[in-house]
Amino acid sequence: DIPVIYLITPTHGRLEQKADLTRLSYTLRLVPNIHWIIVEDLSRKSDLVTNFLANCKLPYTHLFVATPDNYKLKEKDPNWLKPRGVLQRNKGLQWLRNQTGVTGVVYFADDDNTYDLRIFEEMRYTQRVSVWPVGLVGDLKYESPKLRNKKVVGWHTYWKPERKFAMDMAGFAINARLLLEHPRAEFRMTAGRGNLESDLLTQLGVEWSDLEPRAEDCTKVLVWHTRTEKSSLKNEGKMKTYYNTSSD
Ligand code: UDP
Ligand code: MN
Questions:
Q1: pTM (2 decimals)?
Q2: Which value does ipTM take for this structure?
Q3: If I label 15, which of 145, 205, 208, 223 is the partner at 20 to 30 A Cα–Cα?
Q4: What pLDDT tens digit does each residue of the chain (248 aa) get?
């Protein structure tokens, strides 16, 4: 019996949503014993995600919670201005805590990242919190825990290196037991810019010695913080059809 991986994925409506979800689901189909908790940023379940999940061939739970307007990014806002997916990840945590007999590991998997299948096996036997590098994040080739004698002693990051746990969302997984032992721990809008991850781990009482380095002592990148380019629709509604007028 291998431990279950609970994947919590916030997702929001946009042109690329179905494409991103399709790509992610095809990765997840290759992972044994996962349960996909997909949480829409919307005040109801959308038809698109409902239909998509019905066909995804994965064990899943479909949830929703809308981010209030004042927390939403505007079209022109830089993406660091407000945290994204916060209420949705918390909704996923709340669902987990309301199940009986949950054991396994919890991972926060954004819908546009790229996951090497091996990262799921790296995280599967997490005792408390497992950690590893994340590629293409923080305006670096990668961010990573820094090790000494196989223990995490710091962070390879440019941005706010003084954070206690200076990691991207994709860079760690948590044993579900830890989340059940700290039933009030959640992501907080008030955590401060780029501090969601560190703030959550601090609420969980995590210490340096709890961090379990994975991915060959954090020397391998097995997950990338890729982002999907926004598609333009500027030619929508402007097409003309040119009919074949040749006689052959
Ligand atoms: N997300 C969301 N609501 C939003 C924007 C984003 O639920 O208004 C989700 C998104 O689908 C993704 C996660 O939150 O799973 C992180 O968002 P995004 O990928 O845009 O963040 P970035 O890559 O810029 O860190
Ligand atoms: Mn993203």
A1: 0.96
A2: 0.99
A3: 223
A4: 899 999 999 999 999 999 999 999 999 999 999 999 999 999 999 999 999 999 999 999 999 999 998 888 788 888 777 899 999 999 999 999 999 999 999 999 999 999 999 999 999 999 999 999 999 999 999 999 999 999 999 999 999 989 999 999 999 999 999 999 999 999 999 998 899 999 999 999 999 999 999 999 999 999 999 999 999 999 999 989 999 999 87
Q: What is the 3-state secondary structure (H, E, C) of 116-143?
A: CHHHHHHHHCCCCEEECCEEEECCEEEE
Mutate to test the pocket of ligand 1, among 84, 189, 225 (most ligand atoms within 8 A of CB): 84
- Identify which ligand lies nearest to the alpha carbon of 79: 1
Annotated catalytic residue, options 40, 122, 197, 212: 197
- Is residue 197 annotated as a catalytic residue, yes or no? yes
Ligand nearest to the CA of 10: 1
